[in-house]
């Protein structure tokens, strides 16, 4: 507040005036207060007069001052209504506007949720309280001077039942076989207040426990229990401990919490997964009669697959694990001797193994040959030890008998004896129990102690009886009497054929068993035919000779031959020889047939030489030359046999003259040419000698050392 005093001033009426000013900031607290002003001077003081006084009542305009009450309201989440009170004082008192805010946000007043809260009715009624209505409420008022919000706020505490959350403190899944302990916790996540006074625990919507569980026998005046309330009275109701968890503990767990606001809703279910083994297994076979080479299915089943339901099966044959079979059924196809065994199966999952089940599978075998008879066999007629053996697998046991040409051979037959051996099963060969039967030929009782080569083939049969599992079986062998080749012959031993013609064919035949194989060879041992027929193409002189037929079978060989006689016209050679002291021409002939005749003539002349000059010595013919003839002639020799006449052979003859006359004509030319050649060779040699001597002389005198020595001399 500021006070100012001004000096006096002269007024028109001749007096003095004095003015004083009081300044201050008006607040709502000055509203309605009276301000007094007093004035005097010395005259009045001297006269002891009362000061002059004037009073002024101040009216201050100010915005609303707002208060709310009560400051805290506690209510349950029900259908009840709550009143929030708001009061104000201001100048002027008339409000122009009013509103409420919650947690700093203006409230939009709707008739279904709120009542009042405006200029006409400032208190606010909140209808049907819910948890969303909880918060800090303030009231705001406005008049013509200004607006103001309440300094305090009303805290509306809405209590509502807790919403809880269940948590399982254990790795999931749990194996029942491990008998572990599991802890469950129930925690309030939403609610007012969050403190839980009780918790209900449910398994699959069935109530397990409500904790704490107090069984007091007496209570005090305030209702508190007295004494021991039982084992579940002082436990932490938020925790549920499951001890030695087994499959009965599996399921969806929920919890429900209670506070002073009441019981809340159940929590979302949490599944406690407990793995446990399947129920005990049972095992059966698809057939009670199991036969070798058929099929059988073993079926392993459980009533309860356990948890998880994804199960596999473990199979044993005897003590051997069958690792590649994991399904509930096992089809064995084909059935073998190994199938005859004890079988065990059990189901398994992640929770463990079921109790096993076992079954014994007995396998039978119908008659079947382990060793049957060959369809055919040839036996050498001189063989001493002859026997036939068959072996039949059959379980149960069967009987074996022998037949010859469809007739049963009795045990009393002196020509035969019988031997029977029983063999145990052989797992490695997949053979069941078997019977081996041998039919022995008593050759010492046969005629000649040997087989008859002329007899027809015989048929021997090994026959088994039925054993109740399958029909009897049989195996038949055809036996032939073998012997080596014999009586080998050819259709013609000598074959005449002219050169460049095709000879007639030759057949080679013989007896023997098994069937004979034939081969023809020439005299060089080269094969020319692989069957019994020798059929040659056009032949020449080189093809003549002996041809051998070789017949063979597995018991031996036999050989015969035929001669191929190739006939041809004569060929000859003509030479100058001395015959019986005279110069003669000798004509040597080569021909087949060798009976030949000779004829001589001079080439270019048609006359035949005088036969008196011709002589013959077998395949040689001679022409005696006339020594009076000195001229050059060409003589021809013609040779003939039964095939024909051959090409003539020729010989040039200079004539029978003195030696020096023989150099005329062609001979003279040859002599002259020879002499010229010799002369040229001599001249060349002389030239070479002269050149060599000249070069030697030059080398001798051109040597510097030698020249220097010569000068010194």
Automatic annotation (TrEMBL):
Transmembrane segments: 668-692
UniProt main location, coarse: membrane
InterPro entries: Cell_adhesion_signaling (IPR051275), Ig-like_dom (IPR007110), Ig-like_dom_sf (IPR036179), Ig-like_fold (IPR013783), Ig_sub (IPR003599), Ig_sub2 (IPR003598)
This protein's name: Immunoglobulin
CDD domains in alphabetical order: Ig (cd00096)
Membrane topology listed for this record: Single-pass type I membrane protein
Organism: Oryctes borbonicus
Any GO BP: cell-cell adhesion
Keywords: Disulfide bond, Glycoprotein, Immunoglobulin domain, Membrane, Transmembrane, Transmembrane helix
Superkingdom assignment: Eukaryota
Any single Pfam family the record assigns to this protein: Ig_2
């Amino acid at each position: 507040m500021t006070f100012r005093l001004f000096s006096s001033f002269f007024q028109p009426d001749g007096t003095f005036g004095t003015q004083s000013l009081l300044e201050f900031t008006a607040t709502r607290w000055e509203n309605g207060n009276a301000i007094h002003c007093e004035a005097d001077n010395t005259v009045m003081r001297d006269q002891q007069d009362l000061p002059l006084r004037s009073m002024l009542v101040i009216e201050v305009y100010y915005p609303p001052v707002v208060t709310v009450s009560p400051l805290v309201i506690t209510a349950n989440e029900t259908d009840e209504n709550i009143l929030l009170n708001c009061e104000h004082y201001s100048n002027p008192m008339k409000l122009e506007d009013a509103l409420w805010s919650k947690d700093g946000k203006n409230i939009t007043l709707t008739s279904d949720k709120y009542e009042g809260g405006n200029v006409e009715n400032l208190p606010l009624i909140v209808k049907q309280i819910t948890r969303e209505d909880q918060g800090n409420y303030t009231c705001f008022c406005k008049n013509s001077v200004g607006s103001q919000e309440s300094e305090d706020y009303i805290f509306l505490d809405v209590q509502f039942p807790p919403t809880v959350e269940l948590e399982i403190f254990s790795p999931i899944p749990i194996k029942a076989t491990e008998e572990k302990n599991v802890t469950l916790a129930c925690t309030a996540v939403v609610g007012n207040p969050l403190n839980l006074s009780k918790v209900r625990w449910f398994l699959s919507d069935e109530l397990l426990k409500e904790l704490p569980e107090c069984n007091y026998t007496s209570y005090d005046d305030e209702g508190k229990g007295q004494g021991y309330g039982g084992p579940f009275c002082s436990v932490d109701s938020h925790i549920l401990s499951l001890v030695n968890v087994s499959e009965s503990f599996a399921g969806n767990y929920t919890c429900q919490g209670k506070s002073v606001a009441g019981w809340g809703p159940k929590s979302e279910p949490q599944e406690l997964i407990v793995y446990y083994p399947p129920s005990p297994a049972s095992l059966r076979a698809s057939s009670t009669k199991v036969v070798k080479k058929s099929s059988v299915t073993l079926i392993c089943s459980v009533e309860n697959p356990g948890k998880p339901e994804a199960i596999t099966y473990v199979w044993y044959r005897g003590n051997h694990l069958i690792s590649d079979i994991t399904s509930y059924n096992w089809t064995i196809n084909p059935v073998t001797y190994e199938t005859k065994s004890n079988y065990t199966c059990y189901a398994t999952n992640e929770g463990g193994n079921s109790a096993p089940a076992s079954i014994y599978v007995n396998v039978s075998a119908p008659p079947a040959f382990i060793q049957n008879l060959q369809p055919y066999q040839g036996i050498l007629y001189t063989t001493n030890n002859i026997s036939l053996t068959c072996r039949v697998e059959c379980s149960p046991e069967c009987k074996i008998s022998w037949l010859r040409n469809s007739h049963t051979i009795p045990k009393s037959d002196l020509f035969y004896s019988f031997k029977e051996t029983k063999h145990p099963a052989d797992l490695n060969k997949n053979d069941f129990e078997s019977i081996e039967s041998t039919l022995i030929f008593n050759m010492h009782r046969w005629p000649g102690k040997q087989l008859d080569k002329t007899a027809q083939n015989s048929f021997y049969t090994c026959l088994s009886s039925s054993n109740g599992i399958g029909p009897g079986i049989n195996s038949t062998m055809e036996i032939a009497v073998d012997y080596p080749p014999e009586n080998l012959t050819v259709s013609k031993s000598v074959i005449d054929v002219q050169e460049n013609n095709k000879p007639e064919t030759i057949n080679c035949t013989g007896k023997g068993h098994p069937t004979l194989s034939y081969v023809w060879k020439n005299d060089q041992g080269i094969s020319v035919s692989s069957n019994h027929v020798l059929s040659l193409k056009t032949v020449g002189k080189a093809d003549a000779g002996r041809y051998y037929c070789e017949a063979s079978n597995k018991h031996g060989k036999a050989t015969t031959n035929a001669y191929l006689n190739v006939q041809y016209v004569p060929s000859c050679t003509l030479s100058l020889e001395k015959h019986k002291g005279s110069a003669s021409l000798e004509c040597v002939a080569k021909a087949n047939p060798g009976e030949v005749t000779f004829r001589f003539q001079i080439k270019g002349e048609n006359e035949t030489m005088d036969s008196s000059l011709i002589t013959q010595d077998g395949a040689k013919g001679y022409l005696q030359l006339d020594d009076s003839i000195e001229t050059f002639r060409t003589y021809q020799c013609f040779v003939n046999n039964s095939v024909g006449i051959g090409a003539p052979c020729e010989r040039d003859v200079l004539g029978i003259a003195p030696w020096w006359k023989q150099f005329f004509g062609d001979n003279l030319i040859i002599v002259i040419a020879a002499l010229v050649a010799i002369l040229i060779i001599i001249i060349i040699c002389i030239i070479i000698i002269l050149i060599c001597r000249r070069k030697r002389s030059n080398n001798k005198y051109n040597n510097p050392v030698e020249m220097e020595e010569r000068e010194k001399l």
